[in-house]
User: Fold these one by one.
Assistant:
Number 1:
Amino acid sequence: MAELHVGLGKNSYTILIENGLRHRLPEEIKKIYGGKKIAIITDHNVNAHYGSQLEEGLQSAGYETLVVALPAGEQTKDFQMLPLIYEQLLDFQLNRSELIIALGGGVIGDLAGFAAASFLRGVPFIQIPTSLLAQVDSSIGGKVGVDLARGKNLVGAFYQPKKVFIDPEMLNTLSDHFFRDGLGEVIKYGCIKDAEFFSFLQTLHTREEMMEHIERILYTCCDIKRRVVEEDEKDTGERMLLNFGHTIAHALETYTNYAKYSHGEAVAIGMVAITRLSEKKGFTQPGTAAVIEALAKQVGLPTELHMEEVDLESLLAIMTLDKKNLDDHLKVILLKEIGISYVQDETIAFFDELENI
Ligand SMILES: NC(=O)c1ccc[n+]([C@@H]2O[C@H](COP(=O)([O-])OP(=O)(O)OC[C@H]3O[C@@H](n4cnc5c(N)ncnc54)[C@H](O)[C@@H]3O)[C@@H](O)[C@H]2O)c1
Ligand SMILES: O=C(O)C(=O)C[C@@H](O)[C@H](O)[C@H](O)COP(=O)(O)O
Ligand SMILES: [Zn+2]
């Protein structure tokens, strides 16, 4: 069992990582919430595996519950889902002091978190992340939101959960596709902050090997994210490092209508592409992109940005909507070398060479 504290003043909370924690959730929730009602927001896949156990446990602990189960997938992280959720919360008469639980992957965490941030101007919520991506990244730090057709995460808020409960055993039911996908963000953490962790990842070849070391993987990523968020909760500087590979990733996801690449896949492609560009311009130690590419390939992630399949002008137009853009500047996240990242002011011209990398 491991516990991490995210120190954000009155918005502080803890992350609990424990095998089998799902069986003890009602008891843990009782410690932090003395109200009557709990709304669980989840998706159909996760609900089928874990919904009834959680709901029944909470009912046995004396809570009145509502389960809002939505279709699985990125298309659900849409603005138009919100009224459907609000309607059900209203029917349930959830009040401002009562609790929302996000039970699922990053899609549910972001969407339910934003519903919590906006319903009645803010209802407390907790994160029970069930995908690898959500356990290492999206459940921590309070970035919640939804996608628009014109761009990813373009509507949202910074709204911290009251607690994050991580049960690594829940990953046993995750598909191979989404296990791999989460590794895109895991590799990101090694790239931006921890060369030793990156080297450790290079020694792991199979899902089984990774599951043998899952506590180290989860703890290392959560700890890096916690430290970065503590330093810059509102994403004005240091936190932008967590966006390594994401300017290209988000543009690619948007361009392909959230249907071709899952987020971690797009991040893998984005990290390799930006590092190739950066090497070409002399900002990154030569050979770094190849090393990231090799690790991504080793775990089965895509690494090639197939420019013949996309229109560069359209991709660049989407990038200009990136939330990191301030004034006339784009903020690009680059590596000096594996483990050392920084933010650099650039113009959109930085990406002109994308067709030739
Ligand atoms: N807020 C943040 O800081 C942050 C960080 C990274 C990514 N994100 C966002 O997270 C989203 C991607 O999250 P994701 O990859 O978890 O996608 P997801 O929520 O769609 O989950 C992936 C798939 O796995 C299924 N699933 C989840 N847990 C399962 C389990 N334990 N057993 C069986 N099936 C399970 C889901 O039903 C879904 O089909 C993207 O929208 C991305 O933008 C947000
Ligand atoms: O928490 C952060 O900050 C991140 O950037 C984490 C990213 O992995 C994540 O994809 C996040 O949702 C991106 O946020 P955005 O602000 O670029 O939309
Ligand atoms: Zn991400």
Number 2:
Amino acid sequence: MIKSAAQAAHPPSVRLHQVYKAFGGKTVVDDLSIDVAHGEIVALLGRTGAGKSTVLNLVLGTLTPDSGTVRVAGLDPNANFLGLRGKLAVSFQTDRLLPWRTAVENVELGLLILGRSKEEARATALSWLERVKLGDAADKYAHELSGGMRQRVSLARALAVDPEIVLLDESFSQLDHVTSRALRADFHRIAREFSKTCLLVTHRIEDALDMADRVLVLGAPARIQLELTLTDGQRRDEQLRARLHDEIAAALGGEEHPTDPG
Ligand SMILES: Nc1ncnc2c1ncn2[C@@H]1O[C@H](COP(=O)(O)OP(=O)(O)OP(=O)(O)O)[C@@H](O)[C@H]1O
């Protein structure tokens, strides 16, 4: 990968070095090393059971490696949970919105927890809802929003605290193809505009091809089987995309793997 000046000036935002993890004698992560540079978008693709969630939990610090090291913004995430507050944000497959709060109240919650004033939190939350094209829905409750809109609120909530690193855990997987494609495009635009470092975990090839600078295909146990890089110009080249799609599908094990035709 060619490094930008910003990337060259920063240490990797996320670093896994020779990480090994087993559950009950079964190896799930096997000698995995990944560096995600500042501002880079990396997709981890793998079949069910490949260990994607385990890798994500290691980055979140909710799991510790049996051996090897994990660093997030230079910190051990397991030992520095509070130190990473506000630096690391996650968006999950389900939106996890609080149903008794409106969209804007959901987005401002993280800001209030970080100690921002009510006025500042409200203004920041509203600006993020505008960026995800939900300015008109600020006062609606979750049950008044579609699945795609709820996921947009969830992304606004993750981004509003201005994290250095955003983790996406199958964030677009439950949405229909048209909705998820629009959301991926908007997320990609925002991530670029704000130079966010993103690690996205997905089983959908289209998620990776639409957003990632680098695609890592994991075999089981989690070990890199294929690594591809993709520029924004290349991702718009339909022929190249089709070829990369096939290459990734083959590495994932062909037709057993769910793909996204949309
Ligand atoms: N806490 C745990 N205790 C025991 N086994 C676990 C634990 N967490 C994960 N595993 C096992 O590790 C393997 C990898 O699971 P993981 O959830 O990381 O895979 P995944 O790629 O995220 O799969 P999916 O796409 O289905 O979520 C599976 O065999 C799973 O049963």
